[in-house]
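Notes from the 1:1 (GR / supervisor)

We went over the backlog. Supervisor wanted to see one worked example end to end before approving the batch request, so GR pasted a single chain during the call. The sequence is below; no edits were made to it. Supervisor asked that the structure be written out right there so they could see what the output format looks like.
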Amino acid sequence: MEKIKNNALVKKVGFNRIILFCVLVLMYIVFAVLSPTFLNYNRILSALNYAYFLGLLSLGVTFVIATGGIDFSIGPVMFCSALISGYLLTQSGVPLILCLIISILVGLVFGVLNGYLVAYWNLPSFITSMASMMLAKGIGSVFTKTQSVSWPQATQENGGFRVFVKVTTANGTQIPTGLIFLLVIAIICAVILNKTKAGRYILCLGSNKEAVRLSGVNVKKWEMLAYVICGALAGIAAIAYVGAYSTVQPGLGDTFNNEAIAGCVMGGTSMSGGVASVGGTFIGVLIIALLQEGILAMGFQKDWQYVITGLIVLAAVYADVRSRKRKN
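Structure output shown during the call:
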């Protein structure tokens, strides 16, 4: 095992990511054997539709968890962004491109709010994000007068934004362009986290915030940046969500917080901070999306997804704790 871990290629790709990818492939094979309908192309598309917005949420919260913080507001913020921008599009006649920008800006505002309160007011990220979660729910409901919002279909006016998620050919075949979109965002996030000064400081904050501060670094600025990135990606996730599912209802989004965080932890991001893997998060999200679709294909209730996901997250956290103890 040690020889495999020390292999140059394995070190470059990451042993944990390789194991995670093998788990993803194994899950696909198991579900395909147990339920032949799982091989249906529409099943794969359904899993990918779920992965697009969840992946963007997970990528965003990866930055926050890397600092040692947490953000439980991402799901409701995504819904709030989709509700406000969708209401402006369908009820107020605001141009589509402006509504898409507004969606991102709404997420950005919540990111700035969370980041400022945590970094500059030293409020606990748990409490801050819980408060933001309730704010997002309330603002979305008040803005739309507690009414659901349905974004236009691809064939309707202003439905062109759906090319970010899927394209339907002349013969009715759907092409999952959202996977390319998610991959591009993931690559950008990986570059920011691993190849830039901002990313290095964000990771260092999670490892030893006080040491970074004593070295003369403006830790508040970089800690706030992590929440800003998270908020902006929640706004982009709103576009991916309505591109896949159209209708948005106020007061929802809580469950997506847990699944997004689960994708991060499953992918190798440490809840203690200082260690994060964008590639691992990407694969972790695919596992959650595949797990949901596989359970439904086998005829079980979606509740079983939460049971299995919870067990996987517990195993991932336990492995992270053991790994840190060995290093110490």
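Supervisor's comment: The two ends are 21 Å apart (CA to CA).
Batch request approved.
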